[in-house]
Design a protein that fits this description.
Blueprint: H1 2-8, E1 11-17, E2 21-28, E3 35-36, E4 48-49, E5 52-55, E6 64-66, H2 67-75, E7 79-82, H3 85-91, E8 95-97, E9 100-102, H4 104-119, E10 128-135, H5 140-152, E11 159-164, H6 165-174, E12 184-191, E13 194-203, E14 209-218, H7 231-254, E15 258-264, H8 274-280, E16 285-289, H9 292-305, H10 309-313, E17 314-316, E18 324-332, E19 335-342, E20 352-359, E21 364-371, E22 378-383, E23 395-405, E24 408-417, E25 428-434, H11 435-438
Parallel strand pairs: 1-10, 10-11, 12-15, 14-17, 15-16
Antiparallel strand pairs: 1-2, 2-3, 2-4, 5-6, 5-7, 8-9, 12-13, 13-14, 18-19, 18-21, 20-23, 21-22, 23-24, 24-25
Helix pairs in contact: 3-4, 3-5, 4-5, 6-9, 7-8
Amino acid sequence: MFTDMLKRNKAVVGFDLGNDYAQISYCRADQSMPDTMSLVMGEEQYNIPTVLCRRRGNDTADMWSVGKEALKDASENAGVLVEDLVLLAKNNVSVKLEDEDFAADALLAVFIRKTLAILSIYVKSEDIEAIAFTMRDMNAQLMEAVKKAVETAGLNNTRLYFLSHEDCFFQYMIHQPQEMWIHDVLLYDYRSDGIKSYLLKMNRKTNPVACFIETSMFPEMKPADLTQKTEAAKSAFYRQLDAELLEIAKEQCGANNITSVFLLGDYFSREWCKEALRYLCRERRVFQGNNLFSKGACYGAREKVYASTLSASYVYLSDEKLRANIGITCDRGQEEIYFPILDAGTNWYDAKREFDVMLTKNNTFILNIAPVDGSKTRLAKISLEGLKVRGNKTNRVGLRFFMEDPQAVQIEITDKGFGEFFPSTGRIWKECLPLEVIS
């Protein structure tokens, strides 16, 4: 698959969709690391404000402007600005603009379509093999809105994935030189609602290496509007902000063995966080930027299309992921084989598998549940009550595994019969495997 992708020089895309701003990174098959789309060629202008402007007196395809152009149009009173596009879509709230109602998912679709059009300067839409969207807080409503938006952008044949910011942090780090993550790694993401910290820890005693991320929110670090303040008031505010960040850093670094620290967001500045930076730089490597999540999403998309050895060696586990490998032992000819069904580290919204099996001995099958924390493999027995097994390989059943939420794995088994000789009864058995049983 990767060889074919390499021959066609296809690309994968990581799209960090935030309520404040968005970023897009891309990586072609012949690239070792992703690039991030800049709004100005040759400059590092990665942030695209997540806003639209409905231009007045324009009912054509150019009725909407996006990002910085939208802010400019609104400042010149050329149209009506629409903000909080992600929050609107997440909560399914419509917006009235000059006596016309617009659905939240439709507005988000316009933003995504227009930003992907900017990407076409770097990567043609037909060259995109897969695209991974990442958002700080995802729900089913928001994911469905993004799916619709991608369809309207003409990317129907492109593989679509969703990754959390934690996933992207994990993917980004394991693709960096190992000296950067010998021990724990700390990330501070500074946005308009304050600082969110991510602490990456690894249990290297397990195989694969189990990785965990602890998050904390610090709303007291929320930036303030100081445009009307005096220089003395500004200095006092920034000194207080620096002191608060220093205390946060001391608490987290003092309790953990931190190798590297990442500072994300334009709110970080050497001008105000001098003491905090001085402390963080003691025997630790500190990096500043703001495109880590989009690059991590890009790495994640590439691992989905073509899994490297890293995917087999490291697995990120969270409350929304499977913490065990689930499979079934079955016969193939004269030998007994293990057939994997769901892999540990899979997000609940990506956990799905369908296949058929032939029942040859009885109306039961055994699931193998192997937790990645090193605890003992467990067995789960599934019985199909009322199904008579004929013993001559004429009982075909369809198995469907999926998750509707992070709490449980759902299993549906359908009697498919065996052609005209043994028609299907149409009977369906349903089982629920609670996540706490397999974690």
